[in-house]
Amino acid sequence: xxxxxLLSVALIGALCFADVPAWLKKPEKEFPTAAYIRAIGExxxxxxxxAAALSDISLFFDTKTEVITQAVKQSGAVISGDTSFFESNxxxxxxxxxxxEAEFFCVNFTEPYRNEKTGVYSVLAYINKKEAAQVYTARxxxxxxxxxxxxxxxxxxxEPFRAVQALQKAQVISSLAGNYIxxxxxxxxxxAQKFQRDLQxxxxxxAERAALKKNMTFAITMxxxxxxxxxxxxxxxxxxxxxGYAYSVSDAxxxxxxxxxxxxxxxxxxxxxxxxxxxxxxxxxxxxxxxxSKALPRxxxxxxxxxxxxxxxxxxxxxxxxxxxE
Length: 326
Description:
This protein is of the alpha+beta class. The protein is 52% helix and 21% strand. The strands form two sheets. Strands 5, 6, 7, 8, 9 and 10 form a six-stranded mixed beta sheet that branches.
């Protein structure tokens, strides 16, 4: 009888253990590190377990998942806002198809396993190194095709400001390529040599932009002479300097024309204004090179002066964040 009980207990234990998936019992056997990047996540739900597994996968790359996502969104903004360069460039169009929702390529998940005793869910996230390297390489090549196209355009462009703008787009896209190169060479370290030329190109772009900006000078003209808008003049000058351009009061190559509008409104709650700002950059011949326009939410105060003060603050903040960055 005692022997029968022992056999029964052993059989029950074996059956319970048999329910545990092989990837959880022996992950190295199912997903060997030579061929896969893997991580097991746990949580109180299947979704939480998947998130934990993906978080651990990101640690393998020594980066946060938002880094690549943000870079994709930045390059997407360049693409969607670009109507003047490379409309027919095939590789450039390829970039637009990169999903901003995919932090890492080729991530797969096992079916979740729930421990009936503890209620904890487990999920294994895995990346096939060979497949992922191929996907990253394809995207790096597409990105670098466009980076090189922008650099070629800049070298052939006689108007320095347009050349700088092209290099700015190249720099945004190259930052994404750099992140992908880092990820790909983390997966396959021996590929580092393969991307040396691309990394050298990426490193050259800031210096190329700086060299062009060095001899470019800008004068600022405010269409409104109202003293309340003087801080905006200072903000535009500060943004130009931060971007590496020189501000000049005379003999400037370019004019930055700032036009501000504040529609006044009166309500029982107080005085309000609806501010908007338009900035136009023109060359010495008056030809337009860059425009920036923004209508901002209305601001209010107990007096019209207070409303204007708050409106000016909003305009300053917007210019500091977006002028010459778009």
